[in-house]
Structures are given as structure tokens and as C-alpha cells.
Amino acid sequence: MDLVRHYSNDPLINMFGFGNSGYGGLLYFTIGSVTIGVGVGGLLGVVGGAALARSERPRAAAEPVLITLGTVPILAVMPLFVIWFGVASYTSAALVALYTAILLAQYAMRAAENLPPIYEARARTCGAGLVTRVARVLVPGLMPEVLAGLRVALAFSWGLEVFAETLGAPSGLGQGIEILSNTDNIQAILAIVLLISIVALVADAILMMAARLLFRWR
Amino acid sequence: MKTAHSLGQNRQGGESVTRAHIDAAQGSARLQTHGKNPYLANVRLERVSVTFTRSSGGTVTAIENVNLTVEAGELLCVIGRSGEGKTTLLNVIAGLVPPNEGRVLVGEREIHGTGADRGVIFQADCVYPWMRVAENVGFGLRVKGVPRSQRDRVVAEYLELVGLSHVAKSWPRELSGGMRSRVAVASVFANDPDVLLADEPFGALDYVTRRRLQEVMLDLWQRTRKTIVFVTHDVEEALLLGTRIIVVGGGHILDDHPVNLPRPRDEEILASREAVETRRRLLSFLGLEPGIVAAAEDVSN
After folding, report:
1. 20 to 30 A Cα–Cα from A207, which one of A74, A158, B222, B287?
2. Which long-range contacts (CB under 8 A, 24 or more apart) does A181-186 make?
3. CB contact under 8 A, B120 and A132
4. Nearest chain A Cα to B130, which residue?
5. Which domain holds residue B108?
6. If phi over 0 gives left and psi between -120 and 50 gives alpha, with beta otherwise, what is residue B240?
7. Is residue B46 part of a domain?
8. B143 and A118 in contact by Cβ < 8 A?
């Protein structure tokens, strides 16, 4: 019961101005940030990656940039985001979106390169225009590989989001950890780590269930 | 030789694609021509040349100054050795490769790029793995905006004709290579193009499956009388299918030979004097030595 009480209404969390919602409010913020970050970043990454794959020179130019950007430490990027955006609710989401976009652009590029050109040729000989080719051929053809990337991005995003929150965010489980670490409350910190791990596992399971439904053809 | 009475046998259900199946399908509904006269579409290539640039910087001329007329309703077979321009010729007609010089006309219209009036059965497997068999066959019709009910009817007819009705709802991964080829054939015929282009569609299949699919192809052609350009490296296949055979070599048409053999072209017909002479002629244009030609005839006999 103590555990439930801790999750639902931790006095230490309340003391630092997070209301009386316990970890629920923090968790809500973190899940929201990850969802927006992965969603926006994923969309930008997939569209950008697929477009780059179609043009040789831009792809050759973009590939090393994307690989290099992906290796820039979060510790170096996050302070810049805090300076640019301030300690806003969307700062950590923007960071998640950036790393997700970089990762998924690479997956989408590889997927587009691996998609047999004959699929598109067939669509063209059926009279399909660009929109139909994208909707009926490119998107379904890319999705399995993109989903594999999305799974990696999502798993990575939880840690990224929490870490970004510890550096500067108005709420979130990362801020909870930051506050509790000042009070040496190891048990409460571990409780948050456990919570975020469970959420990450559940999110992955939901993604896999969706994938099984979407990719029955594989 | 197998006749059209036993066109194919599927792997899953052991059901034969028989004349009875085809007659039943045809009895239930006429093949789709969407109100067009299927006999009208001829193809003309006028002084067509195609040159490719190699990544090393050099150029290679795939076809050069080719003039060709494919009459409406003709089943033209194009034979030749690998890399001699057969597929380029086909791709130019399909609009997948633009000519550097010359022009291509379908009917009286000069073509620029691809279009639903020219359906292609590709050499490689192009059945979409994310669409069920029926969706694959109906893909072109969907692109054209044909209403669902009409589309379903056409798809059902062609699946019946190629003997795949029982796998209409299956995923392509559940089919054998031969069945997937039949899906490809049905997809193109169902889309009702004016001209049908086939690029060695059965080249990767085993002998028996290939023979059965050749029969399916012939049967569909005899029913629809589409203008067909069929690329193959197999002289026997060309003799079996074609109303006319051209030999392509070095980017030029080396020989243009009408095939007047009666149908069905069974083993007896294909062993006739006229067939042997045609075979000999084609083989000589393919660069086979007289001794090899004689050996091939011995094998044939």
C-alpha cells in the first residue's frame, strides 16, 4: 500500500510544487512528451528519409550529416535547446523529436533503397500517379523497416526524455528524479525508474501488437 | 504436349486449371474490354534509338534506329541473347525508358512515359506482398477508379481464368512461384490494356510450370486478342506462342519472321518441317554454329 501511496501522492513531490497528483502527473507529462516527440520526429524522419532516398546527390550529402548528428551527446544538445526554447513543456519533446527524426530518416532511407524499383514501375504501368504510388506502394513497402526503427527510437526516447527533463523541464518523471536525488530518497528514485521501465515495456508491447496487425502479410 | 484441357495445377488445392474452368468463367461474364475494340491497338516504333550512360562515363547503345510495327492483335515474340536490347525495346514501348531518338506510337498516339494502355508482365516478381491476391489483380482497376462491385467481378473472372479463385484472399507469400506468375498475368489482363508487354515472364520457372503458364497466356490472348509483345530468350517458347518472331541483336532487328504454324502447336506441329526450318533460321540468327543447330535438332527429334 505504501508503494501505491508513493505513486499516487508522494509528499516530497507535492512539496516541490507538483500539486497532489503524485507520480501520475509527472508520468502524464513524460508520456505526452515522448508521444509528441516520437510522432513528430518519426513523421519528419520518414518523409525526409524517403525523399532523400530518391535523389542521389542530396542523399550522399545528407547521410554523413545524419550519422554524425546521431552521435552528438545529449548533454551537449540539451543545454542549447534550453537556451533556444527555455524550460518549456515542449523543450524535451523537441529533443526527442530531433533524435527520432535522425534515426528514422536513416531507416527510411535504407528501406526506400531496399524496396524493389519494380514495384513502382508496375504502379506506373497501371497508370498510378505520384500520390497513389506513395500511398499504395511506397508507404506499405517502407513500413516494416520503419517500424523496426520506430521500435528502437521509442525505446531510446524514454531514457532521452527523462534525462532531458532532469536538465530542464517544468514537469515529468525526470524532474521527479532530480528533486528526489536532492533528498537522497533512493527508494523513491528507484520507484520512478521502475515506473518508466514498465511504461516503456507496455509501449513496446502495444507497438508490436499494432505491427502484427498491420503486417500480417509478412 | 499438354493441351489447353489441362493448363495448370495449383499447389494448395491440387485443382487443375482446365478448359471447363475457363469456359465456366467465360460463360458467367465476358472478358472486360470496357467498351473498346481490342483489335485496334497497334504499336509503331519509328527510328528509335536508346543510349545509356555508364557510371564510368562511357555510353552504350542499347537499340539503334529501330523501325518496327506490331499489328493489332498480333502476338509478337522478341528473341535474342542477353544484353542485346530485347528488354530495352520493351521498356521503350512501356514508356519506362524514353527514346533518345525516334518516337513510339500506340494506335495513332505518340506515347510519352508510362500509361495504363500498356500493361507489363515483368521478368521479376512484382506482385505486391502487402496486398492479398485479389487486391493485386484489382490494383490497376482501383487506380483507374473502377467501382468496387465492377472491380470485384472482373477480378473474380480473371482469377477463375488463371485457376486461382481459391486463393483470392491469400497473401502472396503463401503462393508458389508459378501461382505468383499467374497473379501477375491476371493482374495485367484484368487491367485491360490496349497492348500487353511481357518481359521473359516465365524465365525463372520450372519447365512444367512454364508450359502451363504459356497455355494460360495463349488462352487469354486467344480470348482477348490483345496486341502482345512477348520477350523471351527461348526459341521454343517463341515458336509455341508467336504469330511472328523478331530476332534482336546488337541493338538492331536482325530478322523478322512470321509464324504460320497451326494451333494448338503440339509436339507434332513443332516437329514439322516448317517449324524445324523456322527454328534453324532463328538459331542461326542467334549465332549458333551449324553443328550446334544440328545437335539441337537431334535433341528435338
Report:
1. A74
2. A183/A12, A185/A12
3. no
4. A217
5. 8-270
6. alpha
7. yes
8. no
Domain that residue A100 falls in: 2-214
Taking contacts as CB-CB distances below 8 angstroms, the residues of chain A near B140 are 126-127
Give the domain CATH number at A59. Answer: 1.10.3720.10
- Write out pLDDT tens, residues B12-63: 333 333 333 334 444 433 444 444 444 457 999 999 999 998 878 888 999 9
Q: Considering the domain boundaries, does residue B153 fall inside one?
A: yes
Please give chain A's pLDDT, 218 residues, in tens: 455 555 656 665 555 555 555 678 889 999 999 999 999 999 999 999 988 887 888 888 888 888 888 888 888 888 888 888 888 888 999 999 999 999 999 999 999 989 999 999 999 999 999 999 999 999 999 999 999 999 999 999 999 999 999 888 888 899 888 888 888 778 888 888 999 999 999 999 999 999 999 888 88
How close, in Å, is residue A147 to chain B by CA atoms?
Answer: 15
Instruction: Look at strands B101-106 and B109-110 and give their pairing.
Output: antiparallel
Q: For residue B264, is the peptide bond before it cis, meaning its omega torsion is within 30 degrees of 0?
A: yes
- Whether residue A217 and residue B144 make contact (CB cut-off 8 A), yes or no, is no
In a domain, B275, yes or no: no
**Which among B270, B246, B181 is positioned nearest to B220, based on CA atoms?**
B181
Residue type, B91: N
Best probe of the B interface among A126, A214, A218, by most B CBs < 10 A, is A126
Q: Please judge whether B126 and A122 are an interchain contact, meaning their C-beta atoms are less than 8 angstroms apart.
A: yes
Residue among B114, B129, B131 minimizing CB distance to A124: B114
Count of domains observed in chain B: 1
Domain count within chain A: 1
Q: Is B104 helix (H, G, I), strand (E, B) or coil?
A: strand
Do the chains contact at A118 and B119, CB–CB below 8 Å?
no
Of B114, B126, B172, the CB nearest to A118: B126
ipTM of predicted complex: 0.80
Contact state of A125 with B144 under an 8 Å Cβ cutoff: no
Min CA distance, A120 vs chain B (Å)?
A: 9
Q: B281-301 burial, b for 16+ CB within 10 Å, e for fewer?
A: bbbbbbebeeeebeebeeeee
Q: Which residues, numbered 172 to 211 in chain B, qualify as contacts with chain A under a Cβ-Cβ cut-off of 8 Å?
A: 172-173, 191
What's the CATH code of the domain at B99?
Answer: 3.40.50.300
Residue B278 lies inside a defined structural domain of this protein? no
Cβ–Cβ contact B139 with A under 8 A: yes
d(CA B189, CA B181): 13
The three cell numbers of residue A97 are 523529436
B151-193 pLDDT tens trace: 999 999 999 988 899 999 999 999 998 899 999 999 999 999 9
